[in-house]
Amino acid sequence: MNQFLIVSILIFVSSFGCQNKTLLTEPSYSPSILQGLTTETATQIAILRHKNQKLSYKVSPEEPFRIETKSLPKSLWVVDHLYFNELNSGTVYDLDVINQDYQVIDSRQFKNLDLTARDLKIAIASCMDQRRHNASIWTDFSSHNSNLQFLIGDNVYGDVETKIPSLASPIELWEKYVEARQTLQLYKSKILTPTLAVWDDHDYGNNGGNQKYQYKNESLRTFYSFFAQDPIKHKHYSKGPGLSFRLTAGGQNFFFMDNRFFRTADKVTPDYHWGQQQQDWLFEQLQSQQKFSWLINGNQFFGGYQRFESFEKNHPTNFVDVINQLKKLKTKVAFISGDRHLTELMKISKADIGYETLELTTSAIHAKVFPSSWDQAPNPRQLYGKANALNYAIIHTQQTNNSTKINIKALGLNQETFYQHQQIIK
What we know:
- The protein has helices at 3-14, 135-142, 170-183, 201-204, 216-226, 276-288, 311-314, 316-327, 350-353, and strands at 32-38, 43-50, 56-60, 65-70, 77-84, 93-98, 104-110, 119-125, 148-151, 195-197, 237-239, 245-249, 252-256, 293-297, 333-337, 342-348, 357-361, 382-387, 392-399, 404-411, 417-425.
- With 426 residues, the chain is α+β, with helices and mostly antiparallel strands.
- The chain folds into 2 domains: 3-110, Immunoglobulin-like (Sandwich); 119-425, 4-Layer Sandwich (Purple Acid Phosphatase, chain A, domain 2).
- β9, α3 and β10 form a beta-alpha-beta unit.
- α3 (170-183) packs parallel to α5 (216-226).
């Protein structure tokens, strides 16, 4: 038996001591790779590997990069972060993953992102239970040649099958992130796409969790370890409290809001969905960055009609305050949300916010789905809806000086179109 095979067997046997049920190692383990926050000249790439794997990375055309490894002491799995800062505009780069025997075991392609382009296509997904993975819907999701991919919450089901029901310890959450990274077809795509993410309760680590979750700081570190979006200094980027941040692309602002780290209990006084500090940051940004803006949240905004979580239902006083502040701004906004395990598009009326706009909810790309409760609890704002079906969404936007043209398409398995909607917001 050769030395390499002996080492591989020993690594495989040692992995049984960890809680993750799907741990794989060389030679059977295929690297899990994600491209994250990207500008015209910089990008970040996160690569999951077993800590005993000796990997190196080669980029063609050759560009300098640095590597930083993220780890948790009790885990057999680490994440290498590759940071590039000198990319050339429009160049397609090949990334090779090389093992200790100097063999190329994986190859991907990536490029930078033109943040100033006025035409933008975005693929959006939420609620991706790794126990109910569906590879084909990810293949479809990646096939749209989008400029950006948004993962908007419950990107990992980290609080399931834990010692304390619905509450993950730091090592349990880390291992669930590992399991998701090993499982999801998204992380095996040969063509990498800049991917931006924010969490909801399941990837936060506490079902229905709020600011009192005792491991929230550890969860924050885990999230940044697996998603390649460390804060940067760039005129099109602003880091907010918690996980929140703004990226300006396509002539529009995209605000990814953290609805867990500072969240209060329901209907207390005062009640906060995002926390005072994050809310103040948002409105300072909206006032200083006067472009059409998308507000992106793990759970619904205008969801008071239904019995599940939403900003409007769980924090009603704060919701009214935020909407009243939005009405006063010159900047117009639209809303993107997940969580509901259904897809619907709402018309937000002039009576609601002072002008007509939209809220898109898309969920789940793969998780348990249910029949609609719209018969018992109809949504008066709904334009379209589809329940009991896996789904994701594509938004195509075109920005002019005076308006934002939006084309929204909700899709399911085999790229079945559930609805499509066009709207111009001036």
